[in-house]
Amino acid sequence: MAQVLKDEIRENILKAALQEFFDKGYKSAAMRNIAQQAKIPTGLIYSYYENKETLFDAVLRPVLYDWERVLTAGEEDKSGHTNNEIYGLSKAEAECILNLFDHRKEFIILIDKSDGTKYENEKERFIKDIEEHLNKHRNDDIDEIFSHIIANNFVDGLMQIMYHYKRKEWAVMILHKLSKMYLSGIGL
Q: Which of 42, 78, 107, 118 is most deeply buried (CB count within 10 A of its CB)?
């Protein structure tokens, strides 16, 4: 019985922290607000999480990927299509992005609301990994700066899908169109 209560308290803390970080970003989020929303004393949070940083890590866990590894794993799947009809994405890439749709708030926090944390450059790292992946597969006549622009715009497009999300089928359809526009347009 006690373990069930502990798990429930931990889950309530994570839900409250997710909302607080989403609403205010890491810098402005307050542990007392998280505790208030979780309906527990503030000090109890520290029984589960050492500090705000470790709680932030726990909130972001579902969306933390080694994108270089994901993109490299995707090179094994050369079909260019997935069962999800996302143009040009490997099965590994599509699975990661579909997971991101299931964890939109966490991904938005990671990319846009993590100033002051070890993740504050995550968007730039994500863009760089996509850019390097594109450069490996680009035609020789495509300028590297062009690959950077495509990668940057792709990530911005993905973020717009996250912010304006309606439902998963809609997001997949929009992502498919976005991928097709970028990838077929540059000859990949």
A: 107
